[in-house]
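Folds abound. A case:
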Amino acid sequence: MANKSKVIKASNYSWQDVDRKLYKTDTKNFKDIHRYSLLGEEVQELNFQTRYFEIQPGGYSSLEQHRHPHSVVIIRGSGSLVLDNEIHDLNLHDAIFISPETIHQFHADKKEPLGFLCIVDRYRDKPVIPDDETINRNIHSEAVRKKIQK
């Protein structure tokens, strides 16, 4: 078997031969966010995918939940994260575990870009946008309700 090991060189939060992509194409419930698929889409030996997401100041990811867990490490800037009924401030190098079925949304609300690595299983379910009933059942905090963007 051929050795497929490689190094992808980075410069200023972009990677050699890795395209900056739209965050998603099937929904519109996000603002000013892009992604880079670093490892796992083309490297079939990996059971996971490593992606970099960057949210511009004032932007946010989609409000979503899903059955698969994932891990996130902040590598640029600061911001906040909605995890079900809580808001967490995020800073450089914070590590986050998002368990299955947790409503979550990242916000670049500190006047600087928020960039993070996100690692997920290669084979996983698609994110679901929580409906009003699910939000009402899981989110009781008025601060969180004001923060989330649908």
Remarks:
- The chain has a mean pLDDT of 93.
